[in-house]
Automatic annotation (TrEMBL), chain A:
The lineage of its organism: Bacteria, Pseudomonadati, Thermodesulfobacteriota, Desulfovibrionia, Desulfovibrionales. Signal peptide: none annotated. This is Fumarate reductase iron-sulfur subunit. InterPro entries: 2Fe-2S_ferredoxin-like_sf, 2Fe2S_fd_BS, 4Fe4S_Fe-S-bd, Beta-grasp_dom_sf, Helical_ferredxn, SDH/FRD_Iron-Sulfur, Succ_DH/fum_Rdtase_Fe-S, Succ_DH/fum_Rdtase_N. Keywords: 2Fe-2S, 4Fe-4S, Iron, Iron-sulfur, Metal-binding, Oxidoreductase. It comes from the Bacteria. Its cofactor is [3Fe-4S] cluster; [2Fe-2S] cluster; [4Fe-4S] cluster. Residues 146-221 form the 4Fe-4S ferredoxin-type domain.
TrEMBL record, chain B:
Its EC number is 1.3.5.1. Residues 469-598 form the Fumarate reductase/succinate dehydrogenase flavoprotein-like C-terminal domain. NCBIfam families: PRK08626.1, sdhA_frdA_Gneg. The keyword Transport applies. It comes from Desulfobaculum xiamenense. It is a peripheral membrane protein. This is succinate dehydrogenase.
Length: 247, 613
């Protein structure tokens, strides 16, 4: 049980002119039930107080602590050290802008994604505070919830080859978001409207099908199924628009 | 230095902050939310259970109404709440839930037909009516007369927060994430905005607003062991307290939860015990039945927590590198039950402990969970003491929770209070023109710049930031926990006064450049210690037991002397203790104090004579 863990951690503070990108090594004695949250917090508080990383809920719910753990995108809070070798390499998620060390700016990326896909219910109905709520089938509510479970940790984007090559790719998280609204009867957007958002190489046709997104999703979301679903729906919508009377 | 001007500045972009921002944006005002993390990572996302609202759609909720909800809430508060506020909350909760449905929350819905459910290990049957099919359904929660808690599977906070943030994006609410407030700018009794630090670059910024709302959540991280997210450290509370004129209400009212897992203190649900799980000590023996022969593990949250700590004090705790704990045993429930009915617990054990609860005991102990206290507001959400300052959600002591909050009422509060306070804030904005005294703004910025410079250069001393924080957390953990008495509280207050002096002599070990995390902690730590002193000193002075505030030396609830709310201010920078005053718990008494119907403490009645104690 008394292993010494060696952490090799990417270091760079863009706001410090004397800082250059490099790897730093820290040694931490392992304790029972240790997670990367515990190990990194100890390093910061006992060895190097300038070390930057992001944790928030530390319970696998908020998605703040995505990072490359021995090369693979994952949530640091739910990574147990006992499942790791003696030497652990930690790098920030690629694609997102670096804030410093292991901390990246996922907020800006996702905010831009919401505005591109119109991430809200598009409806012309007004809310009536005196009326009974609109009814919904419980099975459908559950289906929507399944797609709404994305925590925007960014692992799927970091694990995506297309996202690596083109910055404008919506990625699995963005496409999953569109699928969520397509499923929701409260959203009055038509298939044509959705096609405008995702019917190109920045959207559904950009995916190379390498399955990186689904492999690394810490919530186990069916990201490739959703992409397939969107491609079929969008393909049919495109064909219909070429037919006489199609729109 | 960047300066941002907006109509309303929301400090916090969780459910309460965004709901208020949405109200302002709908009325045509500019709204800017500041958040330490991207808005959707706010701690609101972590709430799994649900939101209480008396919709009465499901069969076990039949006959429910805001009146029944009101009775549950006031009883739950141990009559410590503001009853006008509890009434406003209960009446408006159903509207708020329906509005969230309209905006996109996939609430679970009523499915007609017969179904089984379990209560106290026994199996019962219920039947959902066909005419209610598709309406928002509800689940059972502790302390409620009806099934009233609206939910989306085990991710209610997540779905409601995502829907709220979607609505905010749609209306053009500005969210500046990775920005942390350092101080509140105020002048001549008027709140002008805040000085904040960008957590991407480390640069200071000024935000000027006609109205400022604090909706920054709880401050559980002043305790060493808390279920709260690491961002819930009370930084914004500290900034408000440091104005010297705004009081914090009932800071001694701190809720503890019996089953936080050791070492990360993530919650495992009360359902474990509800379904028949037991608590074991270092010898593998049950103990709850020794203290509570009737209810054993199923006594109320505060009662179970108290006996667990007592048992650890008796030397029956399990030693670990993370301190002493007890065991939760659900092995006898069987693999099928655990994997299906307690799926979330199963996952937490695997993901965070690396153990299988079918075969292993779960290490648990009672940990800080919720802050009933906070920035004292009136029923409109206006903070006392400063014009133009508002608060909502867990950050506020709006005060529908009094001394004990019911499960499902806090998540609902964020949305309901956000809706109601948002409307009042819009009224306020309509009657306001902005006037900013630039000298006051400059002074506020200079003070923060000076503090940063002194921390970087070690001008005031070389106290280690994390060592001082640990000392503060230990003082609260040891002396202001579940069991309280004059000795322990007195010692805690004394040591916190010393720690406060140390917190004024901090010096950084790193260079403090850029988004430096040590500097972030150093800037808020003295204020956090002041919050800790408000909790400890308030608890020492309150010589009764009410809700979560349990005094071993004053076990009775004393309505004669203590049917009131503590208000703590910090008027002078050189003060060593908060100034405490008191106000009646409620101006309007719709429901006079009585027995809660659970717990078995004695009560000194309101009208007891002076010599009647």
């Amino acid at each position: 049980m008394t292993r010494n863990l060696t952490f090799s951690i990417f270091r760079y503070n863009p706001m410090d002119r004397t800082s250059t990108p490099h790897m730093d090594t820290f040694v931490v004695p392992e304790t029972s039930s240790m997670t990367l949250f515990i190990a990194l917090t100890r390093i910061r508080e006992e060895q190097d107080p300038s070390l930057q990383f992001d944790f928030c809920c530390r319970a696998g719910i908020c998605g703040a602590c995505g990072m490359l753990v021995n090369g693979r995108p994952n949530l640091a809070c739910k990574t147990k050290t006992k499942e790791l070798p003696d030497v652990v390499t930690l790098l920030p998620l690629p694609i997102f802008r670096l804030v410093g060390d292991l901390s990246v700016d996922t907020g800006t990326w996702f905010r831009e994604m919401y505005s591109r896909v119109g991430s809200w219910i598009h409806t012309d109905r007004e809310f009536d505070p005196l009326a009974e709520e609109e009814r919904m089938d419980n099975a459908l509510a559950n289906e929507i919830y399944e797609l709404e479970r994305c925590i925007e940790c960014g692992c799927c984007i970091a694990g995506c080859a297309t996202a690596r090559m083109r910055r404008d790719f919506l990625g699995a998280a963005g496409l999953n978001r569109v699928a969520r609204f397509m499923l929701d009867p409260r959203d009055q957007r038509t298939e044509k409207d959705f096609f405008e958002i995702i019917g190109d190489d920045e959207g559904i046709f950009g995916c190379m099908g390498l399955l990186g997104c689904e492999d690394v999703c810490p919530k186990g979301l069916p990201l490739q199924d959703q992409l397939g679903f969107l491609r079929r729906r969008m393909g049919l919508a495109a064909i219909r628009s070429f037919l006489p009377g199609g729109k | 230095m960047q300066t941002f001007v907006t109509d309303v500045l929301c400090i916090g972009a969780g459910l309460a902050g965004e709901r208020v921002a949405i109200a302002a944006a709908e009325a045509g005002f500019d709204a800017t939310c500041l958040s330490i993390v991207p808005a959707r990572r706010s701690h609101s996302a972590a709430a799994q259970g649900g939101m209480q609202a008396a919709l009465g759609n499901c069969s076990m909720g039949e006959g429910d109404s805001p009146d029944v909800h009101f009775v549950d809430t006031v009883k739950g508060s141990d009559w410590g709440c503001d009853q006008e506020v509890a009434r406003l909350f209960c009446d408006n909760a159903p509207i708020a839930m329906r509005q969230m449905a309209h905006w996109g929350v996939p609430w679970n819905r009523v499915v007609p037909g017969k179904r089984h459910y379990y209560k106290g290990g026994e199996r019962f049957e219920k039947e959902e009516k066909a005419e209610k099919a598709g309406l928002i359904t509800a689940r059972a929660f502790g302390g409620t007369a009806k099934w009233r808690t609206c939910y989306t599977s085990d991710g209610t906070g997540h779905t409601v927060l995502y829907t709220m943030d979607n609505r905010a994006a749609q209306l053009g609410v500005t969210v500046h994430d990775k920005v942390e407030v350092v101080s509140i700018i105020h002048d001549a009794g008027q709140c002008l905005g805040a000085v904040a630090r960008c957590l991407r670059t480390g640069e200071l910024r000024v935000y000027l607003a006609k109205a400022t709302l604090v909706a920054s959540g709880g401050f559980g991280r002043i305790y060493r062991e808390s279920t709260n997210a690491v961002i819930n450290d009370g930084g914004a509370h500290a900034a408000v307290l440091d104005t010297g004129v705004v009081p914090l209400g009932n800071m001694e009212a701190v809720q503890f939860h019996p089953t936080g897992i050791v070492p990360t203190y993530i919650l495992v649900t009360e359902g474990c015990r509800g379904d028949g799980g037991t608590l074991l000590d270092v010898n593998g023996e049950r103990f709850m039945h020794l203290y509570e022969p009737e209810k054993a593990e199923l006594a109320s949250r505060d009662v179970v927590s108290r006996w667990m700590m007592h048992h650890i004090r008796e030397g029956k705790g399990v030693k670990s590198p993370y301190g002493e704990h007890l065991w939760l045993d659900i092995r006898h429930l069987g693999e099928r039950h655990i994997r299906v009915k307690l799926r979330e617990v199963d996952e937490i054990c695997h993901n965070f402990l690396g153990i299988d609860p079918v075969e292993s005991l779960i290490p648990v102990k009672p940990v800080q969970h919720y802050s009933m206290g906070g920035i004292r507001t009136n029923k409109d959400g206006k903070a006392y003491g400063l014009e133009g300052l508002f608060a909502a959600g867990e950050a506020a002591c709006w005060d529908m929770h009094g001394f004990n909050r019911l499960g499902g009422n806090s998540l609902a509060e964020t949305v309901v209070a956000g809706m109601l306070v948002g409307a009042k804030l819009v009224e306020y904005l309509r009657g306001r023109e902005a006037v900013w005294n630039t000298a006051a703004v400059r002074d506020a910025v200079l003070r923060v710049e000076d503090r940063i410079e002194r921390l970087r250069t070690g001008t005031d001393g070389g106290e280690n930031v994390y060592a001082v924080r640990d000392a503060m957390q230990d003082a609260l953990q040891d002396g202001v926990h579940i069991f309280r008495n004059a000795d322990g509280l007195g010692r805690a207050v004394d040591s916190l006064r010393e720690i406060h002096a140390r917190a004024k002599r901090l010096g950084l070990r790193s260079n403090g450049v850029g988004a430096n995390p040590e500097l972030a902690m150093a800037l808020k730590l003295p204020g956090m210690v002041r919050l800790a002193l408000c909790v400890a000193h308030g608890a020492l002075m309150r010589t009764e037991s009410r809700g979560s505030h349990a005094r071993e030396d004053h076990p009775e609830r004393n309505d004669r002397d203590w049917l009131n709310r503590t208000l703590a201010t910090w008027p002078g920078e050189s003060d060593e203790l908060p100034t405490l005053t008191y106000e009646p718990a409620t101006r309007v008494m719709e429901m006079p104090p009585g027995d809660r119907g659970y717990g078995n403490g004695t009560i000194i009645p309101m009208d007891a004579g002076e010599n009647n104690s």
